[in-house]
């Protein structure tokens, strides 16, 4: 029995030995096959670029072209010679595989032969596309126990980081940057506890969303946790890691609170790059920062820091990049910065004050100097152009003054110069910048300088962005044709006269995408512009007097066209093609004639049509129902003779409809073709037309955008975008107001000065987010519906000059937001209700109702049958408090036939623009309303 067992054991041992031997001898061949099958499991994509992030020489991102390393792998050659493969010399085992940026595309599934390469110590698959894998294969956590470097950054794996990764206890570096994967807190904690060798940990963009565990290993050299959603307090021990060189939390999270050590930093000898962006450093920067003697990069950007920049920062002699932008720092700029070796200094978007230190101009190592958007005073000094390496200088939006130094023209490396929005003065020749052969951005806008161009201006050859708004320029007509890549030109708010400068069409014929010549005195037509490349054209407020060129029809690049406030004549373009991508078409306040062409709908992407203040006639074509993207349609102050354009009812996005001051007529109250007419409408102005019949009940029932109730919940936003903000003029509280931008909670109905008759429908009480309601100067009869009391947002209510009778409903006392009320010139009777809001109005709100009594009218309710004498008192009141310029002779409402002052004008003397709208908008009162009838 014993023998048998021994024999069996021996056999087993022999078998095992044999097997091991076999495995060892087969292993080389198996590894080759495994590698080759791995190659074949993936395809090779077209060449691309991969970008890297380097901490050297301040932070740089650079890209290199991809290279398909597996392309030439073939079974007839030794796999140890294959590109990207490293073998152990003695055994021939594959120990390293570096296939980063090799254009590999496909899935790495659990049965992939990659996972047979169990001897791997280095594995780099970064910058390939394995998004087809569905999940992050667990096998990475255990297939090669000896793995010391694992780099899967930018490989598009998704899912969850396998927990087994915390068993790879030999890992020295782990790079999972830019993987949109989840790393569970438990795994993260084990990983930091168990991987005692770990020195480089990069998890940028990995979703961790937890606190940072304590007990980090002393070996950590590089820690990159940007965009991981860490929150809570960052443990101070991080700053005491004795070998830490890089701590990078870029694109952090305002819920991550960091307090920098006040006295001692354990990493003071080693830390080279400290980068925090978008976290909460509300305790600011301590003096102890100066202890970091090796620090080369200090970026504390958008970190909610207030307080001062410590003077001690000048002791950081190795510092090459300092970025403290987007905080609330409010000290001066410390002089000591001059002792550093800064290449990049960015202090923009703070509250820095005091004089600009002259020492900044002596920092000859500087390449980027960004101090824009602060409250800095003082003058610019000359940079030493023989030594300076300056490439980028921006001081826009400060309080700097004095002359612009001539020596800028000697800074040969300059590529961006932005001096806009300061108080610089003096006369400057544009030629001064001609020698700057790398200059791509030049901005001098909004100063007090007078810019001249003597003779033929030579623009710097690489110039792309030219901003010379408000530079007192008179002439800019002759420019040499060097700057052939010019992209943005802003010459607005100057005194340029004559025709559109010829050079613009020549220099920018292949590149010009933004041209702003608004607010000049330019005459003539629109010829010679590079229509085929322009994206945004703003020529508003000039003296242009040509007609609209038919080229507008054929441009597929133009998106925003603003020609308002000119003398343009002719007709609207009749386009037979629909290549246009036009979004904004603004020709308000011109002399455009003729009718609205039905082919205008070939501009099918239009969001915004402004035709206000022209001489357009005829009707609104029914084809306008095709403008599915239309949000704003302003046809006010033309000569359109038509019935109400029912074709617009179904437009899903229409928010603003202005038809005022035309010759519209007829009933609106016909049956509607749409179940939900005007679903997005929130501003409708039909005033000063000849509409008749009853108020359109069907619409009042369906104005959903005026019923959403809780407008305070949404964040205020404005219509339009960075380049074009929607503007419109409305009569609000009796005064014509130009809304320079339209906030999304502005809601108004103006049906005044028409021939509407019948009752005010009860439904009006459903429009609970309505802010302005004007149905004055009509022939409305019946009572004021008590449902109006439900309009709790209402800021202005004008029902004046109708034939409303009965009592003023008590419910009106609950219009708590209402700052303007006009019920005058009706047939209202009885006592004016007392209480809350109604007590704040003066007698002008009620005058001209012969049977109304009580405060604030002087007519007492007990001698109810009082005669007309007291009325004169009320009318006298109208004449107080405003000047004749403000007085407008309107029309009588029967009681005082001679003239009644525009009651509303009273308000102009003491405007009450108290509501949210007024606050939000910074209203501009353009002119007083002139009402005639
Ligand atoms: C295999 O690769 C080697 C070197 O990588 C090359 O010299 C040889 O031509 C290749 N053979 C084939 C059949 O592609
Ligand atoms: C790997 O598994 C997938 C399914 O999970 C299968 O379709 C494929 O054929 C397998 N590949 C190999 C080489 O076994
Ligand atoms: C990972 O590989 C990329 C190259 O694709 C490299 O830039 C990066 O530094 C590597 N990560 C580590 C931790 O070495
Ligand atoms: C691949 O990653 C390793 C470390 O993970 C790194 O040392 C190597 O430089 C990277 N390869 C390339 C080409 O960047
Ligand atoms: C930690 O590493 C050891 C090897 O050093 C391993 O045996 C253990 O399973 C690991 N623990 C965890 C929780 O991953
Ligand atoms: C209007 O546009 C259509 C194409 O959308 C075209 O066929 C027609 O000729 C155009 N009409 C005029 C008058 O140009």
Automatic annotation (TrEMBL):
Q: How does it sit in the membrane?
A: Single-pass type I membrane protein
Name of the featured protein: Uncharacterized protein
Transmembrane stretches, start-end:
888-909
Tell me its family: Belongs to the RLP family.
Task: List the InterPro entries.
Answer: Leu-rich_rpt (IPR001611), Leu-rich_rpt_typical-subtyp (IPR003591), LRR_dom_sf (IPR032675), LRR_N_plant-typ (IPR013210), LRR_R13L4/SHOC2-like (IPR055414), RLP23-like (IPR046956)
User: What organism, scientifically named, is this protein from?
Assistant: Daucus carota subsp. sativus
Domain of life, source organism: Eukaryota
Q: What is its main location?
A: membrane
| PANTHER family named in the record | LEUCINE-RICH REPEAT RECEPTOR PROTEIN KINASE EMS1-LIKE-RELATED, SERINE_THREONINE-PROTEIN KINASE BRI1
Q: Which GO terms describe its cellular component?
A: plasma membrane
Upper taxonomic classification of the species?
Eukaryota, Viridiplantae, Streptophyta, Embryophyta, Tracheophyta
């Amino acid at each position: 029995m014993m023998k048998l067992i021994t024999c069996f054991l021996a056999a087993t041992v022999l078998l095992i030995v044999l097997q091991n031997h076999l495995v060892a001898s087969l292993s080389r061949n198996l590894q080759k096959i495994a590698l080759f099958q791995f190659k074949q499991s993936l395809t090779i994509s077209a060449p691309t670029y991969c970008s890297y992030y380097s901490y050297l020489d301040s932070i740089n991102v650079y890209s290199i072209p991809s290279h398909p390393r597996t392309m030439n792998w073939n079974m007839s050659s030794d796999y140890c010679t294959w590109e990207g493969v490293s073998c152990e010399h003695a055994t021939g085992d594959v120990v390293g595989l570096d296939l980063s940026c090799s254009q590999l595309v496909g899935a790495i599934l659990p049965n992939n032969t990659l996972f047979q390469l169990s001897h791997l110590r280095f594995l780099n698959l970064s910058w390939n596309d394995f998004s087809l894998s569905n999940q992050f294969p667990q096998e990475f956590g255990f297939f090669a126990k000896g793995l010391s470097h694992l780099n899967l950054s930018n490989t598009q794996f998704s899912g969850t980081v396998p927990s087994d990764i915390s068993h790879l206890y030999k890992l020295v570096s782990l790079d999972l940057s830019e993987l949109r994967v989840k790393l569970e807190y438990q795994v993260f904690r084990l990983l930091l506890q168990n991987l005692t060798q770990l020195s480089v940990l990069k998890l940028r963009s990995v979703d961790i969303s937890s606190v940072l565990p304590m007990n980090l290993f002393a070996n950590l050299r590089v820690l990159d946790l940007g965009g991981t959603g860490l929150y809570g307090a960052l443990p101070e021990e991080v700053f005491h890691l004795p070998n830490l060189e890089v701590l990078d939390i870029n694109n952090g999270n305002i819920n991550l609170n960091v307090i920098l050590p006040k006295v001692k930093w354990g990493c003071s000898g080693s830390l080279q790059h400290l980068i925090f962006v978008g976290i909460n450093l509300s305790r600011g920067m301590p003096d102890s920062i100066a202890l970091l003697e090796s620090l080369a990069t200090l970026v504390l950007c958008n970190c909610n820091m207030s307080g001062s920049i410590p003077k001690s920062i000048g002791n950081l002699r190795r510092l090459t990049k300092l970025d403290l932008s987007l905080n609330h720092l409010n000290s001066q700029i410390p002089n000591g910065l001059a002792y550093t070796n800064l290449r990049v200094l960015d202090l923009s978007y703070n509250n820095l004050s005091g004089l600009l230190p002259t020492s900044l101009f002596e920092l000859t190592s500087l390449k980027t100097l960004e101090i824009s958007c602060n409250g800095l005073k003082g003058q610019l000094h000359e940079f030493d152009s023989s030594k300076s390496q300056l490439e980028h200088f921006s001081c826009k939006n400060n309080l700097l003054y004095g002359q612009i130094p001539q020596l800028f023209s000697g800074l040969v490396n300059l590529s961006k110069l932005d001096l806009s929005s300061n108080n610089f003065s003096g006369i400057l020749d544009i030629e001064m910048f001609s020698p700057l052969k790398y200059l791509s951005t030049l901005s001098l806008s909004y100063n007090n300088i007078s810019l001249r161009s003597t003779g033929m201006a030579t623009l710097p050859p690489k110039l792309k962005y030219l901003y010379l708004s408000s530079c007192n320029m008179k002439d800019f007509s002759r420019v040499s044709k060097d700057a052939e890549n010019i992209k943005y030109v802003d010459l607005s708010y100057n005194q340029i006269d004559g025709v559109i400068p010829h050079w613009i069409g020549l220099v920018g014929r292949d590149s010009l995408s933004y041209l702003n010549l608004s607010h000049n005195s330019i005459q003539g037509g629109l010829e010679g512009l590079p229509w085929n490349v322009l994206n945004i054209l703003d020529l508003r407020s000039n003296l242009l007097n040509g007609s609209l060129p038919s080229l507008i029809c054929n441009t597929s690049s133009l998106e925003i066209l603003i020609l308002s406030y000119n003398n343009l004549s002719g007709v609207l373009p009749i386009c037979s093609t629909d290549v246009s991508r036009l979004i904004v078409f603004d020709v308000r306040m011109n002399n455009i004639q003729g009718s609205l062409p039905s082919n205008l709908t070939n501009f099918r992407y239009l969001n915004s049509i402004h035709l206000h203040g022209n001489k357009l006639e005829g009707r609104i074509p029914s084809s306008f129902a095709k403008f599915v993207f239309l949000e704003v349609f302003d046809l006010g102050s033309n000569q359109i003779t038509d019935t109400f354009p029912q074709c617009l009812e179904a437009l899903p996005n229409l928010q603003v409809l202005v038809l005022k001051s035309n010759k519209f007529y007829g009933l609106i109250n016909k049956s509607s073709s749409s179940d939900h007419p005007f679903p997005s409408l929130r501003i409708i102005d039909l005033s000063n037309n000849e509409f008749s019949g009853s108020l359109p009940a069907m619409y009042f029932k369906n104005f959903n955008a005026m019923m959403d109730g809780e407008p305070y919940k949404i964040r205020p936003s404005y219509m339009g975008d960075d380049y074009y903000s929607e503007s419109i003029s409305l009569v609000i509280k009796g005064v014509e107001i130009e809304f320079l931008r339209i906030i999304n909670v502005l809601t108004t109905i103006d049906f005044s000065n028409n021939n509407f008759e019948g009752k005010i429908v009860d439904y009006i009480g459903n429009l609970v987010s309505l802010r302005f309601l004007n149905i004055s100067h009509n022939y409305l009869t019946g009572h004021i519906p008590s449902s109006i009391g439900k309009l709790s947002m209402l800021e202005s209510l004008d029902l004046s000059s109708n034939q409303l009778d009965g009592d003023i409903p008590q419910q009106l006392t609950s219009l708590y937001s209402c700052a303007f009320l006009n019920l005058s010139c009706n047939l209202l009777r009885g006592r004016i209700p007392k209480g809350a809001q109604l007590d704040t109005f003066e007698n002008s709100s009620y005058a001209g109702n012969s049977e109304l009594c009580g405060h604030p009218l002087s007519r007492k309710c007990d001698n109810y049958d009082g005669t007309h004498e007291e009325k004169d008192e009320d009318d006298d009141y109208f004449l107080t408090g405003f000047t004749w310029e403000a007085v407008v002779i309107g029309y009588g409402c029967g009681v005082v036939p001679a003239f009644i002052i525009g009651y509303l004008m009273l308000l102009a003397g003491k405007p009450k623009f108290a509501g949210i709208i007024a606050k939000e908008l910074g209203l501009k009162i353009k002119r007083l309303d002139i009402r005639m009838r």
